[in-house]
Structure formats: C-alpha cells, structure tokens
Amino acid sequence: MPLYVNGKDLIRKNLEAIHAGQRVPRIKVGRLTKTQIEAVNAQQAAKALPFSIDEVVFVGRHIHKRRILGDGYTIDDVIDQVESAMSQGSEVIANEYMTAMRNPIARADRLGNLVHDEVILECSRYRPNPDIFSVVPKGDKIKPQKQTGR
Prior knowledge:
Layout: H1 7-19, E1 27-31, H2 34-46, E2 55-58, H3 61-70, H4 75-85, E3 91-94, E4 99-102, E5 107-108, E6 114-122, E7 131-138
Antiparallel strand pairs: 1-2, 3-4, 4-6, 5-6, 6-7
Helix pairs in contact: 1-4
C-alpha cells in the first residue's frame, strides 16, 4: 500500500496543526509503486527535469486551504481522498501542466457521491521527493457545507 501504516495519522496531525494556525513540517507519508514512480519519471524525463524518488512527502497547507476551508470538506474526508488517490492501483496522469495520480475505482464518499480521487504531485519543491500538493474528488456533485473558522 502506498501510504505508510501511520501515513493517515501523520496527515491528520499536520492538517489539525494547520487548522490551529501552526506551522508544520514536511513529513514522509508513503511510497509510490514501482510502476507509478516509473511513470512519474518518464514524464520528468520528457520535460528534461530531474527524476523523483518513490518516497512521498506531505505538508498540507494547500489542501487545507482549498479542500477544507474552500470546499468545506472535513479532515476525515481529505484523508479518505488522499488514501484513495494514493492507492496501489492508482494510475499516473501525465500532461504538460501537472503530475497526478487517479484512482480508477470509484469510491463512495460521505455525501453520497461516487468519486474518482486524484492526487496532484509537486515534483520539484521538495526534490527528489514528490509532495502531495493537492487532492481532488472528481465527481463530487453533492458538495459539503463550508466550514466556519480559520
């Protein structure tokens, strides 16, 4: 499984700290499969960029801002999205604008949607580690109510 056994707990800890207004460290939360990292590096090679390694890191500021504050998802929702998008069966989506992975198996979310979770990997900021920059639940027609607070 691409997320480490404690990966979800580490992600939760960072997201809760960000929500409390604290600074958080970059943490190692999982590994890409051999097939996934090969696809990521093929995309990097096509752009003449340095290769990434398979160990994935997470900070969470962007995800907190966009998915929790912006869209109203809970931390539990976001963890489910990341876990699904980082699954062993997720496929690398390579285009000129981003490196992402998408779970081809639809997941039933807490709101009644069937979603295909996508994780956007930032492959240069924490080089050589890919960073889980964002996550998107594709197909979330029923949206959560926006959170209040930070």
